[in-house]
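Protocol step 4 of 5: obtain the predicted structure for the target chain.
Materials: sequence only (see below). No template structures provided, no constraints applied. The aim of this step is simply to have a reference model before the mutagenesis design in step 5. Sequence pasted as it appears in the construct record:
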Amino acid sequence: MMPDSLDSTTDFGGGAAAPDASPPPRRRGPVRLLSAGLFLLLAAGGGGIALSSRRVVKDQEKRLLQQRSTEVGALFNLSGARLQEALHTGSTVVTLTHDDAGAFASTAQAAVASRLVGAMAVVQDDGQGGYRVLHSQGPGLAPDGPLPEPVVAALARAGSDGQFVSTPVFVVDGQRRLGYAVLIPGLTPRTLIYGQSALTQSTTSPSRQNQLFSDLDGAVYAGSRVDPAQLVLSTPRFPIGKGQVRTPFKLGADTWLLELSANHPLVSTLAARQPWLYLIGGLLAAILVAALVEVLLRRRQFALALVEERTGQLRRSLADLDAAQQQLVHQERLAAIGQLASAVGHELRNPLGVLGNVFYLLRGRLGSDDPWVERQLATGEREVGAATLIVSDLLEFSRPRQPVMEDVDVAAIVDEVLAVAPPPSGIEVARRLAPDLPPMRADRSQLRQVLLNLVSNAYDAMPEGGLMVVEADQVDGCVDLTVADTGGGIADDALPRLFEPFFTTKAKGIGLGLSVAHRIVEAHGGSLEARSRGGTGASFTVTLPSAAVPAATIQ
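Step 4 output (structure tokens):
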């Protein structure tokens, strides 16, 4: 006999059902540490190259700025040479003309007109620690007029070496001025040519007057340090004291300070952008390499996941195929056993019936006067009854039938079973049936057979006496019917095999009672569950829907 229904995933013709061939979905997860670390490493390398290139560009920029500063200093030296030439010309005229005022005025007017100085005068030591103006040309220097202290100090420093000296920037009548002086050699008392220029806000540096230096911003100080009070000239909006390069230069006998900054990169545009190009290139390379590594890692993970998924499907298919094969072998064995049991049952039923009739006739003929004869007859009838029960189990096992459903009163079927199978001496029975139990849709005779089997097993489990409890309750639309005893319980290794055909732990019997009961309950769409309380008894619970739907009969 073959099963009426099998698992839909089992295919005995072609093995297990084909697994789903669709690959596992790709999930976007976080960036892997390797990709992130590689990106950071390459980005750091690109940043390092950019910083190194930036330092190189800055060094080159500084060298170029220093070179341009030297050029600007040379321009101021040239201007100083022209100024010194004008002062020496005036000195020569005074010497050759024996201090002729007209000749000096002509020479000084030419110097003022060329804007080398704003005013020029011949000054002489008055012998009292001061100087007086002998002749003058230009505004701000009047004959016999007083000279400010910074001018007197500068005049005292002029020597016979022919180099002119310059005064600090000083203020007269709210106007900032700057003076220059050169000593006229060979004259007594001490006589000098003095030139003076007025410093205005519109004064601009040569870098604005000469397009060669239009890329520079800076300031010039009449002294060797940065001092806003000594600022001679500067480019517009130049931040005083914030120049990138400071270069001292000689102007006559004094040292002035030149402070410069570039208003745009002095190196080429490409060289100025080179660090940014390195940085952007490094970041792009880091992104590309990290993205490539990330893609490869994700593809590897996807491939491994796919292999794992396919391996799992193959293992499940093999397991399903093995289970189906074992089930098929088991069903074939049961079919063979069923055929054998049917044949044996049919062959033994008639002889057992004859033996039963023989014992009945003997009892009628011999009577019950002799106790020994009565005892032998009772033993024979009991054994024939046991054999008949075994034959009935064999026939029930070999020819299961579809249950015929009807409304079954739970309390009535329990009372009927206890009346048919009363408890032996020493065993007490307790009924614990919930009130208002709904009737069950079941095959009355089959349900009665199940309860008889469970009750008989409970009696057999308590040879020394005990308590058997029959409980019934409604749970979640189902009726639970439990038969519990206080016997020795069920061994742990025997519990999983209780419902196997021909498995028994009793000295008598062939192990078909629980197997048949389990099959009947499953045919009603319910379940039969066994529990052991560790040496203090066992319980069997039949769970049936209150409106049971018959399952397919297991052949």
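Step 4 remarks: The chain has three domains: 52-262, 287-399, 401-545. The first helix runs from residue 33 to 96.
Proceed to step 5.
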